[in-house]
Specification:
By secondary structure, the protein is α/β, with parallel strands linked by helices. The protein has two domains: 7-45 and 289-396, Aspartate Aminotransferase, domain 1 (Alpha-Beta Complex), CATH 3.90.1150.10; 60-286, 3-Layer(aba) Sandwich (Aspartate Aminotransferase, domain 2). 41% of the residues lie in helices and 13% in strands. The chain contains 13 helices and twelve strands. The chain has helices at 7-10, 16-29, 48-58, 73-87, 101-113, 129-136, 156-162, 185-197, 254-267, 273-284, 288-309, 345-356, 380-396; strands spanning 35-36, 96-99, 119-124, 140-145, 167-173, 201-205, 230-235, 248-251, 324-325, 358-359, 361-362, 372-375. The strands form three sheets. The protein has a seven-stranded mixed beta sheet with strand order 2-8-7-6-5-3-4, sandwiched between helices. Strands 9-12-11 form a three-stranded antiparallel beta sheet. It is globular, with a radius of gyration of 21 Å. The structure holds 4'-deoxy-4'-aminopyridoxal-5'-phosphate. The site of 4'-deoxy-4'-aminopyridoxal-5'-phosphate has 13 residues, from helix 5. 4'-deoxy-4'-aminopyridoxal-5'-phosphate is lined by residues 40, 101-103, 127, 173, 177, 205, 207, 235, 237, 243, 248.
């Protein structure tokens, strides 16, 4: 008999991004005027047609019952069609597993791929869930650290330096959470070809595929990696402002999809049918709603980068995708902020929350201390007010 909580589960850290968001929401509920840059969540409501489809599904007794574990057949087919439309990658419906959000797709992918000791190349800064999902599966995350000097892009040389004979998977995320980095086409193709040459699996998280700005282009690495060793992760959360509906998917070779589906058959079964019907409406419809949201995010993106760049001690590369800015705040450490000093970005985030009533996520959550992640998926006025408060705190010294 060991400890009360198993080693495997007690080793999991709480999601820092959700924790910051919960703290900000609690302060807000207590009447404090907190401005939250914490959650990676669109501030728009889900488009009306999607909501209407869900309402109709509620009234259809067919959806009151269990449905196939890997997803409604019509949704699996629509996801295959949408993938061809959006990234040109051709798959059939049998290669699609519908999951409870992109998060379960991440979890299932690593559970299906990793044996104990298998190494997964994880480019840092990374989304906070990845290392936990890899470790739960028995895999070993091997960090490849990038910084603002390369716009947070990893090179083939860096990846090659981290590769060992235990390396099984490269996790590739473009556009990236938390940095907003988008890999240029040549670099995507070079990394895909390198992975293929070395027999590596590529797990590509494409959940921000439609949120790219300016001249940046979303290029799926699925085209250049080994087609028999590619797993694509995606979902409706970010593109259609559907974070609360919990629908995502995993696309891969049929043996992996079958294995992940077997796992899901013993954990969660089919995803909520009403949410699946909503997702069907979303992926079958056009992309006009996301085009409108993208224009708004782009305006906020330019605003936040310019305001942050005006703060002495802050260096903010221009994010080209998703809805996050990831400034370096090393210049704000060990200086006076209303008489207090932060020795780490975690302490800085705490001081900013307490003194300026602004919630941000420290870089520690993404494997790179010395940075902050700020989501700009919040209202324009709040965005301007929130960054001004930080600027004021820094200016006061
Ligand atoms: N991948 C990335 C990179 C994300 O940022 C998120 C959400 N924060 C997800 C996957 C999962 O999204 P969800 O589970 O809400 O579909």
């Amino acid at each position: 008999m060991g400890e009360r909580v198993s080693d495997r589960v007690s080793a999991i850290a709480e999601s820092a991004t959700l924790a910051v968001d919960a703290k900000a929401k609690a302060l807000k509920a207590a009447g404090r005027p907190v401005i939250g840059f914490g959650a990676g969540e669109p501030d728009f409501p889900t488009p009306e047609a999607i909501v209407e489809a869900a309402v109709a599904a509620c009234r259809n007794p067919k959806y009151h019952r269990y449905t196939p574990v890997p997803g409604l057949p019509e949704l699996r087919a629509a996801v295959a069609a949408k993938t061809k439309r959006d990234t040109g990658y051709e798959v059939d419906a049998a290669q699609v597993l519908i999951t409870n959000g992109g998060k379960q797709a991440v979890y299932n992918a690593f559970a299906a791929l990793c044996d104990p000791g298998d190494e997964v190349l994880l480019i840092a800064p990374y989304w906070t869930t990845y290392p936990e999902a890899i470790k739960l599966a028995g895999g070993v995350p091997v960090e490849v650290v990038t910084d603002e000097t390369t716009g947070y892009l990893a090179s083939v040389d860096q990846l090659e330096a981290a590769r060992t004979e235990r390396t099984k998977v490269l996790l590739f995320v473009s556009p990236s959470n938390p940095t907003g980095a988008v890999y240029p086409r040549e670099q995507v193709e070079a990394i895909g070809a390198w992975a293929r040459e070395h027999g590596l699996w590529v797990v590509t998280d494409e959940i921000y595929e439609h949120l790219v700005y300016g001249d940046a282009e979303m290029v799926s690495i699925a085209h250049s990696a080994d087609p028999d060793r590619v797993v694509v992760l995606n979902g409706v959360a970010k593109t259609y402002a559907m974070t609360g509906w919990r629908v995502g998917w995993l696309i891969g070779p049929t043996d992996i999809v079958k294995a992940a589906s077997n796992l899901q058959s013993h954990s969660t079964s089919n995803v909520n049918n009403v949410a699946q019907v909503a997702a069907l409406e979303a992926v079958s419809g056009d992309l006009s709603a996301v085009a409108q949201m993208r224009a708004v995010y782009d305006r906020r993106r330019r605003r936040i980068v310019s305001m942050l760049s005006d703060i002495p001690g802050v260096v903010c590369p221009e994010p080209l995708g998703a809805f996050y800015a990831y400034p370096s705040v090393k210049g704000l450490l060990n200086v006076s902020l209303r008489g207090r000093t932060a020795e780490s970005s975690a302490e800085l985030a705490a001081i900013i929350l307490e003194e300026a009533e602004v919630a941000v996520v420290p870089g520690e959550a993404f494997g790179t201390p010395g940075y902050l992640r700020m989501s700009y998926a919040l209202g324009d006025d709040d965005l301007a007010e929130g960054v001004s408060r930080i600027a004021k705190l820094v200016a006061e010294g």
